[in-house]
Predict the structure of Putative reverse transcriptase.
Amino acid sequence: MILFVLYIEPLLCKLNDSISGVLIYDKFIKTIAYADYINIFIRNDVEFDLLVQILRSFESFGKIKMNTSKSAYMRINKCVLGPQQIPEVNHLKILGIEFSSKISLIINSNYDRIIQSVKRMLQVHSVRNLNLWEKSWLINSFVLSKFWYLAQVFPPEKKHIAEIKCCVGQFLWKGFIFKTNREQLYLDYDQGGLRLVDPETKTKSLFIKNAIDWENNDTSEEYIIHKLKPQNLPLAVKELIVEIRKIKDMPNITTTALIYRHYISQKNIVPAVKIEYPMIRWEIVWRNLNFNFICSDDKATCFAFWNNIISNKEKLVAYNIGRIESSACDQCSRSDNNVHRLEQCPPAQIISNWTKTTILKHCEIRLQNLEDILHYEIDNSKKNENAAL
């Protein structure tokens, strides 16, 4: 790669000396090169002819030829003519981002393309038997990560965020009738969430961090924050300009992760179950549920139990779902709810009593109710208490 850079440097220098470039916020942009990508900004038809002459001269001395089948030019002004041997296109992909003549087209075409790709991926994974924990891992690692590169350059519009959240929600809650609040899922494990990444906050954090980095770099575009002309910007960018200046004035927030946590903390998200049952020490429950020796299937089951999203008969009748006439259990005729399934039903009583006896015998912990073990304050230094959990 170093040899290629040295080889192509004379061509870039000649182009920079020969063309005028385009003026973008007090700075002339002429040529931009990265790896084997070379982008040249031409102002008029005269410079088109000059470009062809320079390329032919370089071909004769360098013993290489331009691959016209992989080259293209796109009009971003009212230029009439152009180099005949280079095909004209309406959109041009540069480093994975598809550019068009209008910034609104750039944002829409790129996000629409990625969203369609994400939908196909989620459709493939939807046939797998995944629990909530595994789905959140997959969404964070393989689905939402497709947007992060583009978001650093062009933030998505609200319609794109809504579509992303919709397809992610459909995949995550497939097979569930009852759900938790979406924002609760963005919380960390020890706060009652699934550590699911909020696409709106993440894309905003990435763009803000990238804009601040651009301004702090002496060789880059210093106008990103201070010299921007809002009338020339899309709505998604306009809304972030004020936020960029605020974050820049916070010396302790220096990374994308810190920016993301800052915005998540400002949402003041509180799980609904914590408001409904304030007497329970939920911090301990969530901390205990996060131990590594508990498998993800059990964590997902406990999460559904504590957040009361298990589809028992009592809830189905209350919400008039499924045309169920009675909430009585098929085996014992008691009302079928979560507590009943855990301890009151005869099959559950056998398991519950055996578990209580085992914990009392081996760990010397006496439980009144089986679920008490989940909000029991575990002493990490005592092996018997860890074993009981």
